[in-house]
Specification:
Length: 123
């Protein structure tokens, strides 16, 4: 189980790290062609979401690797679960059903990490 968690955590961290970095560093109009939902929110909201995703990515990896506050890793995973709930709600509201499946996969992977690191194999 620990091996599966150590596979899932970097995968989630890479995905959310890259996407979060893009949301933080790119202007809203540059993101709009691929992330149509940004049309509905303020640029500061896009930056906030990007920052939360980047923090979640760092929280999945840094605490367990450094041994400093490793209990933060499952909390980061819970934060990413909540982020995906929000993403799914936004896509459903906009009637964008295609991204929902991908969001669900990310949500389930983050929930797996949260459960695994809280209950099965604490970091």
């Amino acid at each position: 189980m620990n091996l599966a968690l150590w596979i899932a955590q970097p995968l989630l961290a890479i995905f959310f790290g890259v996407i979060g970095f893009l949301k933080l560093t790119r202007p809203k109009d540059e993101l709009a062609p691929r992330m149509t939902w940004v049309e509905d929110v303020e640029p500061s909201t896009v930056k906030l979401i990007g920052g939360l995703e980047l923090a979640g990515a760092a929280g999945l990896i840094l605490p367990p690797v450094t041994g400093i506050l490793p209990w933060l890793a499952p909390l980061a995973a819970v934060g990413l679960v909540l982020t995906m709930v929000g993403a799914m709600a936004a896509h459903a509201r906009r009637r964008e059903y295609r991204p929902l499946a991908f969001n669900l996969v990310l949500l389930l992977l983050a929930a797996f990490v949260a459960y695994g690191r809280f209950v099965v194999a604490p970091a």
